[in-house]
Specification:
Elements: E1 2-6, H1 10-22, E2 26-31, H2 34-44, E3 48-52, H3 62-73, E4 78-83, H4 88-95, E5 102-106, H5 113-124, E6 128-130, H6 132-140, H7 153-163, H8 168-175, H9 179-192, H10 201-213
Parallel strand pairs: 1-2, 1-3, 3-4, 4-5, 5-6
């Protein structure tokens, strides 16, 4: 799997490059700003772009803007962004197009090598990888009276784990339930949220996440 990295701190950029190479990835470019990121992606056509949200010159949202531009110009490139803090607006913008191949992790998550590498692979294969703290804030800021209020406490747990990108087996293991029980909870979730079940777990998860981010979602 070919990867482009955008991180302004040279030490972290080099560390990420080495970590990815040691785990079987090919790092085709490692850059320090948004314009170079977009240029590298269009030139190298990687499977994944790993992007720090805050890049020069203002260190506000240059990385995010570059990531969104990549989603437009190179839609086949998956995007995994990371940030020092949970920034809900950025998560919403990344999920707005309702497509797969997107992730949002806190920088601390990089230090768990196995988890980080698994997230890169999952995003590169078209899935999702949302940091648990990001998911928690998405749920916390949902509108009062939304359809999520119809879900039981257990269904909210299942939905949260789905949003992180976990498989049915992974959810079952986390909640100490059978896979059959998880499948029933998921079916109930989609019924209550009025979302059609489609093939491909990542598309269903993205549909739920996109629904959660809609300002015009019916109450």
């Amino acid at each position: 799997m070919r990867v482009v990295i955008a991180e302004d701190l040279a030490l972290l950029r080099d560390g990420l490059s080495r970590l990815l190479r040691d785990n079987g990835f090919t790092v085709v470019a490692a850059v320090a700003n948004g314009p170079d990121l977009v240029d590298s992606v269009l030139r190298e056509k990687p499977e994944v772009a790993i992007v720090d949200i805050r890049l020069p010159p203002t260190f506000s949202d240059e990385g995010l803007r570059a990531a969104i531009e990549i989603r437009k110009q190179a839609p086949d490139t998956a995007i995994l962004v990371f940030s020092q803090y949970v920034e809900q607006t950025y998560a919403a913008e990344l999920l707005a197009d309702g497509r797969g191949g997107v992730g949002y992790l806190l920088k601390d998550r990089v230090f768990d090598v196995a988890e980080f590498i698994e997230a890169v692979r999952r995003v590169g294969e078209g899935g999702t990888a949302l940091d648990p703290q990001v998911v928690a804030q998405l749920f916390a800021h949902r509108r009062q009276g939304s359809r999520l209020d119809q879900l039981t406490a257990r269904e909210l747990q299942v939905l949260g784990l789905m949003a992180e990108g976990r498989s049915n087996a992974g959810i079952a293991e986390s909640l100490v339930l059978t896979i059959g029980a998880i499948e029933k909870h998921i079916a109930s979730i989609f019924t209550k949220l009025d979302l059609a079940v489609s093939e491909g777990d990542h598309r269903r998860v993205l549909a739920v996440l996109a629904y959660l981010q809609r300002d015009d979602a019916p109450s």
